[in-house]
Design brief:
The chain has about 475 residues and is an alpha/beta fold. It is built from 17 helices and twelve strands. The protein has helices at about 5-15, 20-25, 100-110, 130-135, 140-150, 180-195, 210-220, 250-260, 275-290, 300, 315-325, 360-370, 385-390, 400-405, 430-445, 465, 475-485, and strands at about 55-60, 70-75, 85-90, 115-120, 205-210, 220-225, 225, 235-240, 340-345, 355, 420-425, 450-455.
């Protein structure tokens, strides 16, 4: 496999957006091959109490692609004895782990609840072997950087990450991912919800950003004449969702499918044929900031990282990570990943990071590095299926429309919802999230008492709700009583 000189020169531009687990975690198109090796059915660190993390694997799910990829993994937080479950679906290019700190906060205050965070099947395409080795202390930071990123600018590095489908990720070995749309995501999520329901308690479904669209899609989905919300006791929309009146025309939907058939199956943030770059770079940066916060940043020293992403002086790993993500210093174009964190230290060589706002850097790094003792899972999805984002517009608040027949979307019970709805909006929502939640309630004739709306548009950025410190987090403050009442 070769990489052109042009691609190597432009890889720095990719890495401007590469900290985007937020474009990872955040961007939603909603309102707002070789198979991977099989995995064990459960794993996790030893430990007792609510903060011990377990991993549930549901496989043999069927659908397009190799059977080995037809599985989802779920991070389970809380006591195994708790029979109520909040199932959370991540946003665009996001992974289950970025719900981790939030999940810990919720189960600490709600002992009768578990929180299950879902990795969609696209996460099975990732090669996290060297990141896991770095977390375990078996390779150093330079080896990890070279394996995933450094080889793009250094042809002498021959042992390196092999992107799925080649550099452009449009190889026919991954053509099946062009069919990984809303229908596949909902079927997979249905298996998770059924497993949660088997515990005998209440099941509430929620999601962040695009995950909010998926939540609305599931609740309004037609499962052979039965609406999805019949499985649920409530909906949680975190700066995402879906409202009626936004569906494409059938002609627009067909044109989008034609365009998808001619290109990569995967979301490519800046169009350079490296859709995986944002995920791997975020996972490496987060892990370095978490495990070796005071060591000099290799990324800052690398010519592959553009100047406007770097502080003016040599930073530590923590300093580089915080500088790139903080709302005050992160470059334009990263609005979706920016967090209210703090600032670069006034002195020191290398220069460290000082917390001082809503989000502690350690908490942000844990979100994207992943939980201790759990292999092959982080807070990003390296290969986000374009089809899933394309389909989200046709959800249309669960109101049937002609584009749904083109896209195989079955969200048609939007005027018959019968579960309470919680919705929180940040500055990114710009009125769409709360208005969408109101519309869902209105079109179903729901009572105002069944609608909990939290407006944080003047204080929070898009990813802040999962990252904000517990005692300052309005999502935790308001979601705990919502779930407790259910």
């Amino acid at each position: 496999m070769t990489v052109t000189r042009t691609t190597r020169q432009l890889v720095g531009l990719v890495l401007i957006t590469a900290l985007a687990a937020a474009t990872a975690a955040c961007s939603g198109d909603d309102d707002s091959g070789d198979a991977a090796p099989s995995r064990p059915s459960s794993s996790g660190p030893d430990g007792q109490g609510e903060r011990a993390v377990r991993v549930l694997t549901l496989d043999d799910l069927g659908g397009p692609g190799p059977a080995e990829l037809a599985q989802v993994r779920v991070l389970q937080y809380g006591s195994e004895d708790a029979d109520n479950v909040l199932v959370l679906s991540p946003g665009t290019s996001a992974g289950a782990a970025y719900f981790g700190p939030l999940a810990e906060d919720l189960v600490d205050q709600l002992p009768d609840w578990q929180v299950w965070a879902v990795d969609r099947r696209e996460n099975n395409l990732e090669d996290q072997s060297v990141i896991d080795a770095y977390k375990a202390g078996d390779v150093d930071a330079q080896e990890g950087f070279d394996y995933y990123i450094g080889w793009l600018g250094d042809g002498t590095i021959t042992d390196h990450f092999q992107p799925r489908g080649g550099p452009g990720s449009d190889d026919e070995s991954v053509a099946f991912a062009r069919d990984w749309g809303m229908n596949v995501a909902i079927d997979d999520l249905h298996a998770v919800v059924e497993k949660a329901a088997s515990l005998g308690g209440k099941v509430v479904l929620g999601g962040h950003s695009l995950g909010g669209s998926i939540t609305v899609a599931y609740a309004t989905w037609d499962f052979e004449g039965r609406a999805g919300d019949e499985d649920l006791a409530g909906l949680v929309l975190i700066d995402g969702g879906s409202g009626a009146g936004q569906a494409p025309t059938p002609e627009e939907a067909r044109a989008q499918l034609d365009q998808l058939d001619g290109g990569s199956p995967f979301n490519d943030i800046v169009g350079l044929g490296l859709p995986w770059a944002s995920g791997v770079f975020n996972a490496l940066g987060a892990s370095a900031a978490l495990l070796h916060p005071d060591e000099p940043s290799i990324g800052w020293q690398s010519p592959l990282i553009p100047a406007n992403l770097k502080p003016p002086v040599q930073p530590t790993n923590a300093g580089q990570y915080g500088y790139a993500l903080d709302t005050e210093t992160s470059p334009a174009g990263l609005e979706l990943v920016q967090l209210h964190m703090g600032h670069l230290a006034d002195s020191g060589d290398p220069r460290g990071w000082v917390d001082g706002e809503l989000v502690p850097l350690e908490r942000a790094a844990r979100m994207f590095s992943g939980p201790d003792g759990v292999e092959d899972m982080d807070g990003t999805a390296w290969y986000h299926p374009r089809r899933l984002s394309l389909d989200s517009a046709a959800v249309n608040g669960g109101i049937e429309n002609p584009a749904q027949a083109v896209l195989d979307v079955h969200a048609i019970h939007g005027d018959d919802l019968d579960v309470p709805i919680f919705a929180l909006e940040t500055s990114f929502g710009a009125g769409r999230v709360l208005n969408g939640a109101r519309l869902l309630a209105r079109q179903s004739g729901m009572s105002e008492d069944d609608l909990t709306l939290v407006d944080e548009s003047d204080r929070l950025a898009h990813t802040d709700p999962m990252a904000t410190a517990t005692d300052q987090n309005p999502l935790v403050e308001n979601l705990v009583p919502f779930l407790d009442q259910i």
